[in-house]
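thoughts on these tokens:
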Amino acid sequence: MLALWLVALVGLGGAVGGIGSAFTDSTDLPDSESSTAYALLAQAGADPGDDATSTGNVVWQTDGVPVTDPAVVTQVQDVLTQIAATPGVESVVSPYDAAGAAQVSADGTIAYATVTVTEDAEVEQITELADSLDSNTLLAVTGGSAFDPGFSAGGPAEVIGVLCALVILLLVFRSVWAAVLPIVTGVAGVGVAALVVLLGSNVIDLPSYSLSMGSLVGLGVGIDYALFIVNRHRKALLSGLPLRESIAQAVDTSGRAVVFAGATVVVALLGMTVLDIGILTGMALGAAVTVGFTVLSALTLLPALLAVLGNRVLGRRQRRALAAGEPVTEPGGGLWTRWATAVQRRPAILGVVAAALVVLLAAPALSIRLGTADASSDPAGSDTHEYHQAMAGGFGPGFDAPLLLVGQTPDDVSRAAFTTLAGQLSSVEDVASVSAPPPAAGQEIGVITVTPASTAQAEETADLVTTLREDVVPAAEDGTGLQVYVGGSTASGIDFAQALTSKLPVYLAIIAVLGFVLLALAFRSVLVPLIGAVTNLLSIAAGLGLVTAVFQFGWGSALFGVGSAAPVEPFVSVMVVGIVFGLSMDYQVFLVSRMHEEWTHTCDHGRAVRVGMAETGRVIATAAVIMACVFAAFGFSGERIIAELGVGMGAAVLVDAFLVRLVLVPAVMHRVGAGTWWYPRWAERITPRVSIEGPSATPAEDPTVPELETAGQR
């Protein structure tokens, strides 16, 4: 088995080295107003979106002299000539030429040149040439899509997360090998999955974020899945079971729970396909593949490593005590036994307190606003922020948020109405400027460019788009054949956020129903999956609430190196919903499977909940802290989307484990009583049996009768 994994790593690595990857970050938005506007532009042969080229700006600002000063002009023109001669540069539009006359600010201290480059352009060389303009009286900086470095997968985040997980495992297990095994297993699964995703990008459309998304989710769940199996194996060894039987039992019990938990995460991820947004589907596929390989690693690679290591997964004291025939227990068990007893004694009080805390953390989510952050919120001192400040100072905050009003003008009446509309737009609130070349005779498509007075991410700009679409444009179209569509990158971002928001309830319903069915199959209960589904929603809300507070309200976003307050990225809401739902189901499965195992043996509900909580509390808490550390490490990646996901999912996991699974769920189960395990007899007859606890946990007789008798006595 070890050889097979080594061959897989080497073989896939060689294939990636020879074939490479082909990621694509294009976002298709069918049936949106902005996509219709772009389609009309393409029809007229004026589509601004050219995948083969991109444009950026070189902006410079003078101090004490105008940008038209002869010395400044000479210095800048020389650099622009060198930029134009750089390989991959298609054109340079200078403000000192007639074509770029509008590229000088009103006060004459800021100007910019537009640079169009191909995909293979040497952008770094252009940046170095622009930097050569810096002097005591002249400051230059580059910006725009051509100079966007994009997101590079990998980096220190994964290493930091793994190191934190290792430290926690060492503290819990008191054994180096037991601590290293989950790390090795998780990293191996993520590594093979990453190679598969790289190769898969040549076959299907996958965004560049797929690798980071897979690592973000895969490292957390991979380490946790291995942790549950190693923990069960150690307990079996300490009970005196021989090595091979101990491994088999761990895989046949905790391994089943790992398969089931992994399936719930994969289902939640693949449910994103219903949103019908290519880039999200690609990210979900990448993450689902990674989770699948981490499960495979936990079921194949981990048992092989356990067999090689033998009793070395135990601490030295434990090995000595076991050899001497002395009783050995895991450290920390008493704490969770006392806590489980406390929850059983005070379920109402503790349950209400836990629920109140979760609701408090979730409250900011009521004010969540989805949108794409622009460079105005980037960290102060960064190149992108300095570029935005310079351009905004010379050409207004909305310089990079132009709205394109694309009109169909089939006749003279509609062309006249379109011209009238262009004249009225300057008086609309939050409009800074309007550019509208008059439509030529016989021209059936016209374009008006509206520059907002606010930044692309500002709520005022979103309100402007709404005002244009719902008030201004319909009034201009009334009684004519004119049809106007509001497009542009800002409008596309708004349409994208609205598309996600409108489909989110359907997505939630689908994964909630699927999760309910899976848990009902596993535990043959109605209330257990219902409690799981409802409490999962609470954990999701808490995660989104903290993301809103930190990144949208700005209560700590600077700590994560992503700048100031900005709207929550549209991707984040969907990814947090899907991934946290799956991870919450994981903890529900591990917690309730042990309770169900005890229930089938004793039919004592109070004991089943208490024992299940006491025996899984330590490992669930450890797994949650490890996963939160991995997620939090990604929070410091410096990339806003990844940081929001890391913080949101890390916080949600901690809330889910410590407030929901280890307080609220057992408190509710204690209050409901043995009726928690009720399952209709008609459903019992038609439902296939799925045992998470293994064959040994299957009761000899139908537990429905004693559970109903117990409920009646209660």
Remarks:
- The chain has four domains: 1-12+155-331, 52-147, 339-390+504-714, 403-487.
- The two ends are 52 Å apart (CA to CA).
- Residues 696-714 have pLDDT under 50 and may be disordered.
